[in-house]
Amino acid sequence: MPTGESGERQRQDRIATVDVPETFPCAAPAEGAADGRLQLLVDGIVRLAAGELSARIEPSDQRDEIDAVITGVNLLAEELGYIHSDLEERVAARTAMLRRTQVELEQMAKTDALTGLANRTLLSERIQDAIGASAQGGSAAAVLVLDLDSFKAINDTMGHSAGDAVLVEVSSRLRSVVRASDTVARLGGDEFAVLIAGATEEEVVHIAHRAREALQECMHVGSETVWTTASIGICLRNPGHSSEELMRDADIAMYQAKAQGRNRIERFHPDMLDAVRERSRITAELRTAASDGQLALLYQPVIELASGRVAGVEALVRWHHPVHGTIMPDNFIGIAEETGLILELGRWILHEGISQLSRWKREAPGLTDFRLHINLSAAELLRGDLLQDIRDTLATNDVEPGRLVLEITETVLMSPGAGEEQVLRALRAMGVGLQIDDFGTGYSSISYLRTLPADTVKVDHSLIKDLESDPRQQKFVSAILQLISAAELEAIVEGIETAGQAAQLQAMGCLYGQGYYFGRPEPAVEVLKRLRTAGQQR
What we know:
By secondary structure, this protein is α/β, with parallel strands linked by helices. Helix content is 51%, strand content 17%. It has 19 helices and 16 strands. The chain is elongated.
């Protein structure tokens, strides 16, 4: 403790600088006064310890050791006050920073990082708000769902950076055609949505058309120029529907627009939802159709036109539903392809068809070049175990690879990816026949016909519709057959319904035909009868 004159001066200075918000006076010196000041000192310390940092103790005139302690306690209280104030300021600053960070995180959680648009979460919240406002007497909320057409081609040919640039430009164009009160959102990938609240039906449709027109204009990505279009679905429903239902129905309408040819606008109608539910039912029941014994194969003969000999059959699947009766392939094959069920369905057809071919070989000896035709989808070409499955199934049933012909549509064969090309080469090396199916319905071209890995070409039935009555069509079909022959391929014409068509095609050099004139698809037992009859005639 400082002593002497300087020490006393320092103590006086400290006492002079103490800010005393609340003090406890000490009594004048008297007997027992020191004991009273000690009690006040203890009380003050207790109050400070309890958090009352404004508490102060007033020194007496004695200026003795007790007063020095009192002064020290007051200085300590002052310092604690400063510390507490600084701590409060820091806590307030940190709290404000945390709140700002929380707001930013919430904003990030509800915003698409690439385009800056609202994401699905924020859109759903705003749809719910709009539904609540419409329930109070406002206009019904409307939702548009937009999906870019053929956007995958941009990513595949120009790269994902170019694709991202297109998405950013699309978001900018969509913002430019809506009102300030509307919400534009990116749902993911190349799918966008627009919430239109407080608008009439005509205004909603007008905005949809403006969006479609804006997206049709070309876009410049670096030195490249690209075009894109959008399929748009509109859902405008009365209050009482949830945000999930509005999004679902707009999405259904968008897919309807794609199914109708793309670059279209479709309004949701309840019939669309019924169709979706029907597809869902078919999908669920198709999963167990094979194991429940509901699937069956029919076989349509392929005829050698010159001799009338049955050269082979095409396997065609039928679904014998326990409630809905026989369901034709057109009503479930497309659904199977969309849902991936085509892989298991194709596997079942392959196994059943080859097994049946093996039985025919045993039951009708002499089938030297009789061939089984099976349709193979694009998805099946990429089935990882396809090649081994075909090898094993042929070997198990003692069927030569050359007796199996896989029919693949020309659109798949025209531009196969690396994976498809590898599978096609392996199939040819195995000895399995490959046939271009539905020739004339896709990208028929002289240049690619010579290079496709195929043995035969099946000419689509649409090309012979007017064969007997239209001389120009006769010349056209004749030219196609000559083209196929020049490419060193064999032609099969499907859809032959009359003897006149069969005779004309034979005269043109066509080797094989298929159609109702020769026979409708029939069960395996009927094919066996036909084969045995043909054997007896020989």
